TrEMBL record:
<protein>
    <submittedName>
        <fullName>Glutathione S-transferase family protein</fullName>
        <ecNumber>1.8.5.-</ecNumber>
    </submittedName>
</protein>
<dbReference type="InterPro" id="IPR036249">
    <property type="entry name" value="Thioredoxin-like_sf"/>
</dbReference>
<dbReference type="InterPro" id="IPR047047">
    <property type="entry name" value="GST_Omega-like_C"/>
</dbReference>
<dbReference type="InterPro" id="IPR016639">
    <property type="entry name" value="GST_Omega/GSH"/>
</dbReference>
<dbReference type="Pfam" id="PF13410">
    <property type="entry name" value="GST_C_2"/>
</dbReference>
<dbReference type="InterPro" id="IPR040079">
    <property type="entry name" value="Glutathione_S-Trfase"/>
</dbReference>
<feature type="region of interest" description="Disordered">
    <location>
        <begin position="300"/>
        <end position="334"/>
    </location>
</feature>
<dbReference type="InterPro" id="IPR036282">
    <property type="entry name" value="Glutathione-S-Trfase_C_sf"/>
</dbReference>
<dbReference type="GO" id="GO:0016491">
    <property type="term" value="F:oxidoreductase activity"/>
</dbReference>
<keyword id="KW-0560">Oxidoreductase</keyword>
Amino acid sequence: MTDENSITGAYVEAGKEFTRDTRYVSTRITADGRDGYPVEPGRYRLVVARACPWANRAIIVRRLLGLEDVLSMGVCGPTHDQRSWTFDLDPGGVDPVLKIPRLQDAYFARIPDYPRGITVPAIVDIPTGQVVTNNYPQLTLDLSTEWKQYHREGAPDLYPEALRPEIDEVAELVFKDVNNGVYRCGFAGTQESYEAAYDRLFARLDWLTHRLATQRFLVGDTITEADVRLFTTLVRFDAVYHGHFKCNRSKLTEMHVLWDYARDLFQTPGFGDTIDFAQIKEHYYVVHSDVNPTQIIPKGPDLANWPEPHGREALGGSPFGDGTPPHPPKPDEVVPADHWVFGGSPA
């Protein structure tokens, strides 16, 4: 099995379809500490890379819930070598809290013979320096539920109990056909597996178009975990998936319902202000060298239209319901404006 975050250095197996390794370190951080890791402010560090869509989910959820002062965040650079994601954005190439140069150090501290990819997002126990979990689907759900005591006032309920079955159902379809579907296109090792993945991807995008044509958000009248999971793929679609992964039936900007929906979320505090298009493009076009042997990073697409009006307020609902938007990002977590939307920040 292959994982998009893998450190093998190769992403396409000739003659085979892409299969994601979904075996993760499944330990959970919970309010009651039943796995040995209770929720404690300041104890853990969320390690991410802004380039990675799976890590981007955790960045968004942490920010929407206002957990910045409870759960610190370490940010890896956009590229990695065959060994690990690295902290090359930090002075001396060392994470200032964990005091390690490579995320693999935290994995090996807990599991010395860890056999799989060194993936982000990961949560590390600061006192021991050991990775606790890299199970990204459960990680964000736990931030919404197990960390509830530490949510900011006015934080949204991203996983409301009454809507969980529908959120889970929609999220699973989105994962299989869209989140992972773009990788099944891009890392396909046969023409047949590529075309099958392509057809599934765009069939699901058509299904999502129909669903979102009459409702502002995927499930219910406010943003939920389902929207976070779809957004991180849509926001990367034209910048990398359309060309780099050959998902080229239509650009996002040509799928008008999804384009309006994506801009609606992008302009919502906590979504667009986490996006670093420069790092996203550098990661995909440089790291996936078997897909892009020249490692040339394209100049396009033009990103200046992300702040344009979307008009989806007319469908009703509101992003935060009775709650409030998050505060602006912490100064040391602000994405440079020229990495976010060329020409400035969303209004």
